[in-house]
Predict the structure.
Amino acid sequence: MSVFVDDDTRVVVQGITGGEGGFHAEQMIEYGTNVVAGAVPGKGGQEAAGVPVYDTVSAAAAAEDADASVIFVPPAFAADAIFEALDADLDLAVAITEGIPTQDMAKVNRGLADTDTRLLGPNCPGIITPGEAKLGILPGNIFADGNVGLVSRSGTLTYQVVDNLTERGIGQTTAIGIGGDPIIGTSFVDALEAFENDPETEAVVMCGEIGGEDEEQAARFVRDHMDTPVTGFIAGRTAPPGKRMGHAGAIVSGSGTGTAASKIEALNDAGVPVGDTPEEVADHVERIL
Amino acid sequence: MKLHEHQAKSIFADAGIPVPESRLASTVEEALAAVDEIGYPAAIKAQVHVGGRGKAGGIEIATDREEAADYAEAILGMDLKGYTVEEVLVESGVDFVDELYVGVTMDRGAGEPVLMVSTEGGVDIEEVAETTPDAIAREHVDPAFGLHPYQARKVVYEAGVDGDVALEVASILSTLYELYESNDASEIEVNPVMITSDRDVVAADAVMNVDEDALFRQPDLADLAEASYEDDLERKAGEYGFDYVRLSGNVGIIGNGAGLVMTTLDLVDHYGGEPANFLDIGGGAKAERVANALDMVFADPNVDSVVFNIFGGITRGDEVAKGINEALGQFEEIPKPVVVRLAGTNAEEGMAILNTDLIEVEETLEAAVQRAVADAAEVTQ
């Protein structure tokens, strides 16, 4: 079992003729993902990464029976690409693109209210169900099949934590990068709910960071709705207020909301242990299992 | 990206929002020439990217020429929360009877812009939000429709703004929302909007922050950003295209990916050191990019040691290692101890070819950080 993606997922790559899109489409295929088509305006009829390219996502989905897309489209055009994925009625759209203007994402967020499509990201590494499917840019070789669900706002931090788990022989059901932007499609709560409902997931790791209140909401969800044990990590304890730490969403506002301290406290109050280091997170998971 | 008050006010004025008459001055002489034209009372206001300027002594009201000279002298060149004041805005004083707060910002949780109005203007609005949250009226805007004019009126009336000026305040708020959209602002705030004894409405302050991710379609604002770096190292980081934040410690940090770099900072602190900076070199690790990152961190005189942590995802560790070797080869002497840790794809191959004559190597993030902290402690002894 797994959440959101498995070996039946059929994937369209939006932007497959670009450098990033082409490279990662090949990597996904090499991992065993069912990449069935590409979608690039004006490039219909061509072939890229060994799959047919269509002019629109709808055409690609209809012809190849696709139910998911991965978006490698530059920031200026990315919101439009997401809307196109919503219009094609896919089950899942994964937006890798970093740097989409926030006001564009507010419109996308509004569009999501009118569809059943799940958006992951933007500014995320994607999602992987080890041994079955990888949608995004995650390095497949560090993951292993197992019983821990992982959800994170950050790419390389996910890799670090997964590496610590895999090295100890602890595999993953699914690892989900939800993205580091202020406005994202799938939240911690959405991911936690999916893991709670997945019988194979025996423990969940959530890696948060400063900014916003998603981690606090997640803590309340764990307290009120979850039986599956959760362990956490929060990056940005030493971040000064008012400075954007790389991710557009990672900023402690002047009023002190979004601090690591408030998130750690909320998680601890919900019975979620928070590791001081990635190694400590792995210690906690080992203890739970 | 933050605009200065005078920059935001000029955008407001162009859009038809009433602002006090003002001049920008960078010397005492220019400030005096400005007050001579504007008259008294005149506000002398430091133009720096920090909040709470008034409390910190960065805003004074001069009632005559002597005071104006004294205040301009005192404020120009002063250090305001770490920023040197290079310019002051000399502004006609407003005789007000009431002060309001109005603002537009993105509500992250709701994923929608929100209008905010309060009659508790002129004070720290974050304090108001904390102590008396009901004193701020809010109205969310559906991004699919944009602002309906009635929404601006509704929130102004809900805030309890006096009837005779309410429509004027609502009109300013509507204009601010238009500016918020058209400039890709992340935040626009006027605190205070002053109500004069003649019942005129004036924007006495102006805050406008712009979404850095939207600067590609805001060329005029992007030019202002380039001119606004307060710190030479931050300017350099901008030129190199790095995400960089300077901090006060002595352990320099270079890594890839915001979350992992933040974690590295936290670990430096956890193991008893103090981080000197946040530097995310992003994807790829070509020699030039690695060299630029090292150049940045070495250029910070506070830095005593450096931890260089790369988790290669799609980027291969052996390529990163080649980049590091090549980059270090460009320095005649490595000025500060550098600890490198590579993980992920082809990390072992990478670690094997790193030139350990020039750098220290550790296998885990924890060990690398501890070593860099120890190196820094040795230097400061």
